[in-house]
Specification:
The longest helix has 31 residues. The chain has 111 residues and is mainly α. It is built from 6 helices and no strands.
Length: 111
């Protein structure tokens, strides 16, 4: 059995399922808003009209609030110390691990 062929089939199946899920969700939202596909409304316009926020916006808001919370802590608290921590010494082989500060968008580090 060829693993590459099997993995490719699984990827195609996953992509198809994601496409169907998105299509079903948007068709439901379009009906709820009272539009048909011939009205030529984009998905973002329909989502804004129904006041539906994207999950990424919620995650960024949560991260932003957490960064502000850590910045309000006293300087000797462990989360605040770990935010700016960088290790010293010898590095291991392989890809370097991401630091917590590297994963934050640059707009959040200045908050």
């Amino acid at each position: 059995m060829n693993n590459k062929k099997y993995n490719k089939k699984c990827d195609i199946t996953k992509n198809w399922v994601n496409y169907i899920d998105t299509f079903l969700i948007m068709s439901y939202m379009r009906r709820t808003a009272g539009y048909t596909r011939t009205d030529h409304k984009t998905n973002t316009q329909i989502a804004e009209e129904l006041k539906i926020t994207q999950i990424l916006d919620k995650l960024l808001e949560y991260k932003r609030n957490w960064v502000q919370h850590v910045n309000r802590m006293p300087r000797n608290r462990l989360p605040r110390v770990m935010k700016n921590y960088s290790s010293t010494g010898r590095r291991n082989y392989g890809r370097p691990l991401k630091r917590l500060l590297d994963m934050w968008p640059t707009s959040m580090t200045n908050i």
